Amino acid sequence: MAKGPIFSGDMDPDIAALLGGNVQEVDSRGRPSAAKPSGPAPDFDDLFGGMDLTGNVKSEGPGSVDLTKKRFPSINSFEESPPNQYFNDPEYYKKAMAGGSEEATTFHQVFTRFMQTTDPKDRSIIRQKLIPAYWNFAKRLALGCTTRDFPIQKQIALRFGALLPNLLSVEQKGILERVVYKNTLGEPVYYIDEWMKMVATGQLKASTTDEVRVSRMDDKAKFQVLMEKSRGKKDASEGTLRLKAEERKAMEVKAMEKLEFICAHDSQPGMLHIPMPYTESQRKAFSEMAELFRQMANTDRDLQKAIGGFEEAEAEMKSISDKASGVAENTKADLQAVAQEFETLRQMAKMCIGRQGNHFPILFKDYFHGSIREIGTRENVIQAMAQIEAIDSEAFCRSYKTQLNRIVPYTILVPSYGDYGICWEPFDRFNRATSRGRIAIPIFPKNLVMAVINAVADLRWQTAKEKASYYWMEEGLTGNYYQSFVAKKLKGDVKEYFIADYILWITKEAEGVQKLDKEIRSIFWRYLPFTQEVKDKLKTRSYVYQELYQKDINRSMSDGY
After folding, report:
1. Are 454 and 420 in contact, with CB atoms under 8 Å apart?
2. With contact defined as beta carbons under 8 Å apart, do 527 and 501 qualify?
3. Which residues are within 8 A (CB) of 398 and not within 5 positions of it... i.e. 6 or more apart?
């Protein structure tokens, strides 16, 4: 019995589009008809971007890290449209203070005295009492931010320190009302109320303060530590899998190109249909193919090993998740963790302000300047981080087992007048592979971009120092910089000198303005590399950069790079 064609007629256009390439159609008798181009084949991530390597839905949330993301998202809007109407409510202050807590009553009494006092000396004394009273009240706000009926007035007061609308001008109130309320960008940049809610419900670990032994932690904290460790193993294994698969694919493409080159022959002159012998270049390609096959075999063995490591890490993570299910189901607010985390955030705010800065905790028109594009909103901070990354190519990268992973740190936007962004934690000590670091950015600095650069510099230093461990004064970025610091007989905190030099590196040297000495410039060029675009621009500006550019080429050709 004759079998008919499996497919007849035109191929479904949706299937044709999915397959990509030139899809060959067949007629009613199964004979091929003219090929019709249907466009390029879609990328795997376009089709299965929501899945992990096993086909399951990717875990999402503040703790998940996508190692395939290479840049920050484009920001389409920096303002809420239409603007919110927080301050139109005549009872805004009353609702923000509502609840009858002792902390609210104490703060209200001190705040009232402060506003009514006109004598500068008395006002200064009351101000010193007002600051701790406000932070105690703010902690009470933070403890209630996880409840469903948490008023928007309390949330905005906690997020911006905007407690009394009368203290702000009409223009300033309009600026705050135009700040985008929700996180629509998917980046780990959070306002303080969002951060506290995630810590309270166990979505995030509390920030590290003093070393705490695992044996002394409660069950929830123990499982968080174990889960963080296993997540790091799985993410690192997944990154290795993708890297090895891409390496092998690139070699396969190269092998096919070489084979095509070897098999291409012209006809022998004077002899019809007789191909010419292999050329000298084609014969040379034989040995190159042999070497390529050897590399492909080695990479394939690495791929097999990585698959085993990924499966083992996934099984371990599932086991921990199953054991922790009873604890994880309890999503009620952990008030003790929230209280401790709020005190940590208060310390972050102090560090952002500095000893000589303005520690007044309430948003006040005399201290709040600039437009909506000049304050530390989520969108503005992400844009500033993207600008830094466009100059410092590895600003948010961390190496693990010879693999460089891009891991954007948690960024906490603290309501303060500070001028310095700071790094609280370079990465989780239980997951050095893929955990996020933690940096804090003040919302109302004099210069937002400088505050973000300061935080990235601090992150860069602490990450390099932690990675070098006991040898931080001898090896790598910190070692080379410290040796230069000692040789110049400088006094003070070496990290502060480094941050100041990094600011010059990003703002001046990247533009070809030579502000660093030769030795520091050489250290930064190697350990804090500019993007290739910036390097290509600089090499034409001065012999100084051209020489460093050539050193890059020399190092890349040697084993010592």
Report:
1. yes
2. no
3. 404, 405, 407, 427, 463, 467
- Between CA 307 and CA 427, with CA 315 as vertex, the angle to 5 degrees is 85
Contacts of 276 (CB under 8 A, 6+ apart): 265, 266, 267, 268
Q: CA-CA distances (angstroms) from residue 319 to 45, 227, 323, 432, 453?
A: 28, 10, 6, 21, 41
Residue with token string 């010193």: 128
Which among 365, 38, 412, 407 is positioned nearest to 191, based on CA atoms? 412
For the entire predicted model, the pTM comes to: 0.78
Contact (Cβ atoms closer than 8 angstroms) between residue 434 and residue 400: yes
Residues present in the chain in total:
561
The alpha carbon dihedral of 4, 5, 6, 9 has a sign of: negative
- Phi and psi at 404, nearest 5°, equal -95, 115
Question: Helices H, strands E: what count in the chain?
Answer: 19, 8
Instruction: Give strand pairing partners of 406.
Output: 397
What amino acid occupies position 46? Answer: D
Q: How far is CA 31 from CA 4, 15, 24, 34, 430, in A?
A: 11, 19, 10, 10, 62
Contact 405, 67 (CB under 8 A): yes
First-to-last CA distance in the chain?
Answer: 68
* 427 contacts 436 by C-beta, under 8 angstroms: yes
Dmax (CA) for the chain in angstroms is: 110
75/84 Cα distance (integer angstroms): 20
Distance CA 426, CA 429 (A): 9
Residue by residue, pLDDT tens for the chain (561 residues) are 444 444 444 444 544 444 444 444 444 444 444 444 444 444 444 444 445 565 554 555 676 788 788 899 999 999 998 999 899 999 999 999 988 789 999 999 999 999 999 898 999 999 999 999 999 999 999 888 877 778 899 999 999 999 999 999 999 999 999 999 999 898 999 999 999 988 888 788 888 775 444 444 556 666 666 766 777 777 777 777 877 888 889 888 988 988 888 888 888 888 878 888 888 888 888 888 888 889 889 888 888 888 887 888 778 777 777 766 655 444 455 677 888 899 999 999 999 999 889 999 999 998 988 899 999 999 999 999 999 999 999 999 998 877 888 999 999 999 999 999 999 999 988 888 888 999 999 999 999 999 999 999 999 999 999 999 899 999 999 999 999 999 999 999 999 999 999 999 999 999 999 999 999 999 999 999 999 999 999 999 999 999 999 988 888 777 544
Q: From CA 114, how far away is CA 111, in angstroms rounded?
A: 5
d(CA 318, CA 232): 13
How far is residue 351's CA from residue 455's CA, in Å, rounded to a whole number?
A: 11
Tokens of 484: 């230069």
Between the CA of residue 280 and those of 254, 262, 285, 286, what are the distances in Å? 19, 10, 9, 10
How many Å apart are CA 162 and CA 363, to the nearest integer?
Answer: 5
